[in-house]
Amino acid sequence: MKELQLPTVTSSLELFSWTDKKFIPSCYELEPFHDDNVIFCGSLKHRNVVSHQQKDKILVYMGNGTISQKKMVTEIKTAFQNSNYHVYIAGMGLNEEHFDTIHIAPYFDFKSLLPEALLFINHGGQNSIIDGLIYGVPQLICPGKVFERRFNAQSIEKNHAGIELSYTDFSAECILRYADKILSDSQYQNNAENLGNILVSLGGTQNIIRALRGN
């Protein structure tokens, strides 16, 4: 900063106030910021066009955070072991295993699975919630103690497109109860689909390019 003869800052967040334009890869409904320099550009990813497919899958990804991989697998298996759902649990370091309708692996191509998903259980990371929404999938989010993820979870819940789950309640009993609540109420899916359509309609990178060109 000194070499560029710029004012000193106490936090890198102060740099955002210097910008002429602020691009947010989300939508106003999820991040209601009031600023003339803010441009919502929605999802930066394209939504694959898919024909109607049967929705019978539950996807689970908790990233690196408060919930350990071991606890994630144990509680999810217990919650859904007798269900008719096909459950896909992904996490770094997991061994590939299959138990009837429950599938575990270090990685699954969620982009190909999301069009068939009824529910996305995740940690509230930005990529996860946006990916889920552009395919109209309601979410059960356990953000742990991370502020950004807690903000995302609360935004999803306020829009009635999912439910926030406290990390202290990450148990098979609570997971199944909230999953049943989401899956039995079509409004969760309808609202997730509406948010997804808004995110796609905002133009993504093309909107950023137009704004920078002054179009």
Short description:
The chain has helices spanning 69-80, 110-113, 126-134, 147-158, 172-183, 186-201, 205-213; strands at 22-24, 38-40, 57-61, 86-90, 97-99, 102-105, 117-122, 139-141, 162-164.
The structure class reads: alpha/beta
Averaging pLDDT over every residue, what do you get? 92
| Largest sheet strand order | 5-6-4-3-7-8-9
Rg: 19 Å
If helices are DSSP runs of H or I spanning 4 or more residues, what is the number of helices? Answer: 7
What fraction strand? Answer: 15-25%
Regions with little confidence, pLDDT below 50 for 5+ residues: none
Element-level helix/strand string: EEEHEEEHEHEHEHHH
Describe the structure.
The protein is α/β, with parallel strands linked by helices and 215 residues long. Helix content is 34%, strand content 16%. The protein contains seven helices and nine strands, in the order E-E-E-H-E-E-E-H-E-H-E-H-E-H-H-H. Strands 5-6-4-3-7-8-9 form a seven-stranded mixed β-sheet, sandwiched between helices. Strands 1-2 form a two-stranded parallel ribbon. Helix 3 (126-134) links the parallel strand 7 and strand 8. Helix 3 (126-134) packs across helix 6. The model has no long low-confidence stretch (mean pLDDT 92).
